[in-house]
Specification:
Elements (H helix, E strand, L loop, with lengths): L2 H10 L5 H11 L17 H6 L2 H20 L3 E6 L5 H6 L6 E6 L3 H9 L5 E6 L19 E5 L10 H6 L7 H12 L5 E7 L12 H25 L5 H15 L20 H10 L2 E8 L6 E8 L3
Parallel strand pairs: 1-2, 1-4, 2-3, 4-5
Antiparallel strand pairs: 5-7, 6-7
Helix pairs in contact: 1-2, 1-9, 9-10
Amino acid sequence: MALEDAVRRLLELPRGEQPAEVERIRRAHPAPSAEAWNTRFGPGSLYEAWARTTVMEGLYHANAAWLRDLLDDRPGWRVLEVGGGDGTLWARTLRPDDRGEIWLVDPLPEVHARVAAHLPAGVRLVPLETGIEHPDRLGPRGLPAADAVIVSLALHHVPGADAVERDRHGLPGAGKAEVLVALRSALLPRDGEGVLNEADVFCDLALPAGDPILVDRILDSYVRRAGLSLLHDLGRRTDADDDLRAGWRALLRRWCLDQVDAARAPLADRDVYELDVPRWLALLDAAGLEVTEHAFTDRYGLFHRYRFRPRTG
């Protein structure tokens, strides 16, 4: 049975039968790529294939439209981006005559190089090669005052709603709440605005490794929603060549189905610590951020986008 047919059959099964079926599909369909996620960029990479999916194109379109309007109103702008991906957002947003600064927080040098490759001559990149959860590594000045903050599919890599929850699980340092407070401080001096993109599913520290609820929620996000979107791209997109389709199949097998392993990994070793929409709204509010708009950017209910600004008074 072809991989796409096997995943379609999986999605028709009762939820309780799906975890075992995922394992059967993985055994029957060895991963077509050994590429680790977020480690290779450029033509032919799985990240490039991911950037061209319908769900990601919807996210880029929404972010680029918001960002373009903001940059046009703020000459000499400064943007703080947390997690740069492969720079696709900037390729879709910037014009040759733009002038400004991008301060990029990301631990991977390859990400900084990819973003820099998309910038016109008048846009300066300031690389901060660390994770946003390590404010002590950002230098003596910390985060800069910014006109805009973009945090797209990055905070789900930070375990815990806050430092208190992290401490209960033996994890030192900042959680999502402390990161959001720091971002608020960066926006205040310039009365800036921010955007947060994250999946709508709860699988943070409160759910221990191997918990059936955690397994179900990982499958809900990565298979029932992301996997379904990839099946639709493979079946309906007429603009995809054979190489791109091969990349999407690799994502379906290597990324979507293999994410079930995250549900069995020790707490500190997961790569996803998602919150659902109500929890993100509560966390943004507690951090002193006013959500001015929020909505899904795709029809699968996968990625939710929150526009926010610092609350004053």
